[in-house]
Amino acid sequence: MSAPEDLMEIYTDELKDLWSANDQMRKVLKKITTKASDAALKEMLTNSQAGIEKHTDVLKDLIAANDEKVSKEHCKGMEGLVAEATKHVLEEGPDKGPLLDVMIIAQYQRMTHYGIAGFGTAAAYADALGLKDDSKKLKAATKEIYGGDEYMSKLAETTVNLQAEDA
Model-level pTM? Predict the structure, then answer.
């Protein structure tokens, strides 16, 4: 990739990067979901996969609407987060139970925070470019991602961490 020439190019590159990040996160969540013990956690992980697919569709639509080739740009940031989640949850974590659930939430939130930063940044670029519809869609996605993160924090604090303490 050559140096960007304007904010529009930076914006569309961000959208393509987010698409890749979403695909990577969705794939690892599919594997991680089967390991979760807590029913509410398992349900949230399943719902998150559907949310990620929805947000990916938004990204594809925005890329196309801005007359760009609808393709993704490999996201090395999410690649690292997925490698960490794979290591801690799928390779070195306990087989099942509350301790693994705690680790799942931590890895989920790390990946989610990356998404919050990326979608929020893309929304700010859209604002600066006067792309009101893009901004609205990206802000809505950011809000949904925040909601998932807040739910996971609440689940950890009220249930999963307490179960792990007793394990």
Answer: 0.94
Does the pLDDT value for residue 1 go beyond 60? no
For the segment 87-145, what is each residue's pLDDT rounded down to a tens digit? 999 999 999 999 999 999 999 999 999 999 999 999 999 999 999 999 999 999 999 99
Q: What's the confidence (pLDDT) of residue 4? A: 81
Rg of the chain over Cα atoms, rounded to whole angstroms, equals: 17
